Here is the input.
Amino acid sequence: MKINAKDLWAGGLLVFLAVIGLYINGGFLGIGLEQHTLGTARRMGPGYMPMLVFWLLMGLGILVLVLALNSGPDELGTWQKLDFATLAAAVAAGVVIWQVMDRMGYSNNYIQVGFACLVGLLILAVSPAWRPLGMTLASFAVFGLALEPLGLIVSIILLCGIASVADREHRPLGVAAMTLFLCVLCWFVFIKELDIRVPLWPTII
Amino acid sequence: MELLLSNLAHGFGVALTLDNLLFALLGALIGTAIGVLPGIGPVATISLLLPITFGQPATTAIIMLAGIYYGAQYGGSTTAILLNLPGEVSSVVTTLEGYKMARNGRAGAALCIAAVGSFFAGTVATIIVAASGPLLTQVALSFGPADYFSLMLLGLVISAVLAQGSIIKAIAMVVLGVALGLVGTDVQTGQQRFTFGVPELSDGLGFVSIAMGIFGIGEIILNLERPEARSVLSGKVGSLLLNREELRRSIAPVLRGTAVGSILGILPGGGASLAAFGSYMMERKISKYRHEFGNGAIEGVAGPESANNAAAQTSFIPLLTLGIPANAVMALMVGALIIQGIQPGPRMVEAQPDLFWGLICSMWVGNLMLLVINLPMIGMWVKLLQVPYKYLYPSILVFCAIGVYSLNNSVFDVYQTLFFGILGYIFSKLRMEAAPLLIGFVLGPMMEEHLRRAMLLSRGDPIVFVERPISAVLLGIATITLGAMLLPGLRAGKDKALAE
Here is the structure.
C-alpha cells in the first residue's frame, strides 16, 4: 500500500468540509444546526443546492481518499517536533484568546478575531518552517487591528516591519527605506488620488 | 458586414477616449511589468487592482484589467528570451528557443518577432472576437435555463479536466468553489445561508478576498519558502531588426500560432499557456527547420508568442458572449463585472454595446501600444528585475491589505483575506488546484439559479436536461470529456505535455 500522504490529507479535508457543510445545512444523518428548508425537487428550498453540493463533495473526497491509498508515495514534507509544537500552541492560543476576549466584551470590529490571529500566527512563526506563513499573515492581522485606531501610516509601518522578518535577507536600513517609500506611495495613490476613507494618523491619541 | 464595421467604428469611438486610452496604457504597462517579474502573475495583479477600478465606469475598468492580461504575455517573453526566466507560465516555451537565440547574439530578433507576432495575432484575434460576438449571442438567446445550466456544467468540467494534476481533485475543487459561493443570502427566498449571523457575510464571501488570499498571499508565502536563485543579467540586446531570412521563416509559424491560439483560447481551462505549448508542439512536428529546435530556431519563438497572445484575447469570447469564464483571469473579470452591476451573459452585447465593442477595440489599441512602446523600453523592463523580491512582496502585501479594506471600509475583509491566505497555503501544499475553485465560486450561484428555474419550469422533472437538444448535447460533451480524460492513456499524454 503506497500511501499518497498529500492526497490522503486532501481527501480528508474535503470530507471534513462536506460533513461540516451538511451539518450546518441541517441534514447529516439526522443531526443539523440551522434548519434550511430543503423543499422538493420542484420547489427547491434554500437548503437543496447546498445539500446536493456537499453530498457531491463528500463523495469526491472519499474517492480521493481511497485513491490516495495506492497512488504512490508522496510525502508531506518532513515535520520537526518544533513544527508540531508551535502549530498546537498557536491553535490553542488563538482559540483561547478569541473566547476570552469575546466573553470580556471586546468584540467590536472583530478585534477579538484579529488579536487571536495575531498571537496565534506569531507563535506559529517561532518555528522556522512556519515562519513565512506565520509572519506574512501576522502582518495582515496587525494591519487589520491597527488600521482604524492607529491610522494608515502606522499600520503600513507595522505591516512592513513584521512582514520583513519573514525574509532573512532584510536589513534594517533597507526595511526603513522601503517602508518610507511605501508610506509615501500609498498616501499618494490611495488618499490623494482615490480618496478612500481611512484615517491617516492615529485617532485614539 | 456593414453592421460589423459600424459596430467597430462605435467601439473605436469608445476606446479612443482619453480616459480609456489612459487606462489601457496603464493596464498594458502594469501587465508588462508583472509579466517581467517572476513571482507575481496576472491573476494576483488583477485581483489586487480590482478595488481600484470600482471608482471607474465599467468599460474603463475592464479595459485596464484586460490590458494587464495581454500585457503580461508581452512582458513574460522579454525575460524568457533575455534571461531564461519565464515571467509567466505561458512564456516557459519561449525560453526554449528564445534564450538560445539570445546566446547566439540574436536576442533583438527574438524580441522583435515576439512583439510583431503577438501584434499580428492580437489583430486577428480581435477580428475573431468582433465577428463571433453577435453570432454566438444569437445562438445563446435561444438558451433556456436548462441549457445554461448544462453549458456552465460543461465549462466547469473542462476547466477541471485541463487543470494540472489529479482530475478528481480538480473536480472536487470546483465543487468546493460552488459550495463557497453558496454562503450568503439566498436570492429566491431571502434566507441567510451559512452566514453564522455575521452581517458582513450576508452578501456572500468576498470574491476579491478569495482571489487575493489564495492567489496573491498564497503565492508570496510559497515564494518566501523557496530561496530563489537570481540569475545575473547579461544585458546585451543587440540590434532589434530581423534579417530577411528570419522574417521569411517566421511568417508560417506566426500564422499557425495565431490559429492555434485563437482556438485554444476559447476552450475553458485553456488560455495562453495551453496555446503556447500547443503551438510549440506543432512547430516541432511540422516545421521545415525542426532540426534546429534546441539551438535557437526562430519558429519556436514566433509560433508560441503569437499563440499566447491570440489565446489571451479569444479567451474573452466565452466571457463576453455567454458569460462563462474560460480561465481564472476571466473568472476575475466576471467578478469585476458583477460588482460593477453588469450581468454577464448573452444579453450583455445588446445591453452594453459600449462595453463589448469598446473593449474589443481597446484590446487592439492596447496591442498597438505595446508593440510601439515596449520594444524601445526593453532595457527599462529588464532593470525592473533588479528589484529584489524582498522589497517586492511587502509592497504587494500593503497594496493587498489596503485594497481589500477599501472595498467595504471593513476590517472584516482583511481578516477574510487572511483566512483565505491560510486556506490557499494548505491547498498548495496538498496539491489542490485553486483556479478551478475560483471558477466554481463564480459560476456556482448562477448555476443554482438556472437549476432552480429549470426545475420549476419542468415541474420537478430532471428529464428536462436531456430532453432539450442543446442541453443534451452539452451534457453529452461534458460526459465524454470527463470519461476520455479519465482514461489513463490520455491522462498521461496531458500530464506529459503540461510537465514539459
